[in-house]
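Two records follow; treat each independently.
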Amino acid sequence: MTNDRDRPTPPSDLDRDAGEALARLEDRDADDLRAIAAYLEDLAAWTESATDESDERAATGSTPSNPDGDVGEDIDDGHEYPEGVPDRATVTVKEIADTTYYYYQWRDGDRIESKTVQRKNGSW
């Protein structure tokens, strides 16, 4: 059996909620704690990535509906979404070589779904 004085202590700079969450985890078995630690590492990496993307969008002037910051056609409120695309989807419109592309993206649970529709020379 290990000595209790060798037991790790939580970081002192955590807020109250985080400290309480750690206290609830102290009696978990080693496998649970390792699984939780792996999840928290993944969550930290994802949070950093999301923060980096947000900072990049702010610097480049892009928005979630126009992630590349490209100037494209505005989608008016009467825009009809293709079948299978929810109204909450973000839309990016780009014109490349006389072809207009509509890029739709939306979240479905933990997955990001997308659909691309193209219109050549004003026709679908």
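The next record belongs to a different protein.
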Amino acid sequence: MKNKRLVILGAGESGVGTAILGKQKGYEVFVSDFGKIKEAYKEVLRDNGLDWEEGGHTETKILDADVVMKSPGIPDTAAIVDQLRAKGVQVISEIEFASKYTNATIVGITGSNGKTTTASLTYALLKDGLNVGLGGNIGKSFAELVSEGNYKNYVLELSSFQLDGIETFAPHIAVLTNLSPDHLDRYEYDYKKYIASKFRITMNQTEDDYFIYDGDDPDIKNWLDSHEIKAKKLPFSLQREVQEGACIKDNNILLTIDNTQHTMPIAQLGLQGQHNTKNAMAATTVATLLKIRKATIRECLESFQGVEHRLEKVLKINNVMYINDSKATNVNATFYALDSMETPTVWIVGGVDKGNDYTQLLPLVNEKVKAIICLGVDNEKIKQSFGNIVDLMVETAGMEEAVKVAYKIAERNDTVLLSPACASFDLFENYEDRGRQFKNAIRNL
């Protein structure tokens, strides 16, 4: 009997990880990337003796697939995906493919913002007591981790694109950090479709599973009011007391699960700010469900310093603090960043607009921002939204120029904040590249 044919579209982290796992599981594997494949990934493909192509798709080699793994960056509307679906070929995400080959306990974390911080913090809370791997949309792909076969537990950061391609995937614990409009260019500019995509994380859960979510988020509440889910619901809230889940009482995080209460003082959290309190509540709920010792949770929450490119303090020069928030790829993330500024701010913003609505930022910009530096190929919308609010707005063509302009504008006790509210693909490879270029430019001042 001939081996099943696995075709992989896209040779990034998820594609190459799936190729390794597919070969290990006896599939005949073919990898096809419409663009250029990075040299590091080519090496992995060669070392594993895998068949691949770049710079276009050879239809005959793709359409005879038994199953296709589509990388999250490729939209469902791509011509080759339409052709596969018309032929009745199963098209899934790497998360779906890899989940078939592990019996581990899976914690899946999604949301418009905070998912990387929450996933990193959850992993930090679990790793002393459990055998656990961290992956998905952060670090290594889930498929590669599964191929290594070392873990009994996984913490996975999951994007809506990864969830779009699942059919049976069911995390034992699902976390939805929050909802705000993002990636609407991939959802026909329909926010409801994006919300439905995020809630796919719970669609295959059973009564024995848990769904942890922001109980203050109106979009989450509305969806739960009109849809049934089977998993046990555990909200976290800063605004009200909850019977089950996490809330704030007397400056403590109060967590109630199965009538047992646990407390943790907020003042001792390593990460400050309301959104980080929520991230801590979500992560603590997961750790408690997985029986991590209270003392371990407390120590870890106190020492955790956050993730790179998320409100990361870079340097202080002439009493001006430079902060890298390159991970803010949507308006809501930038809202948190501006909200946490305590000194006059020079704000570097811009990139690929995904259908952004900047109105929610207007009061914060009015209150905190003294100058705006546009960093993007097309800055029209930013100029229209904030032109009347700030006295100074400068357009720049790249990161080095943006940082030099910020250096000239900023005065003692100001903050220079890179928080783009946009995707990075016009001038940079990704948000990490953007953040690193920002840090390098500051060090070269």
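Discussion point: Residues 274-289 form the longest helix (16 residues). How would you locate this feature using only the token line?
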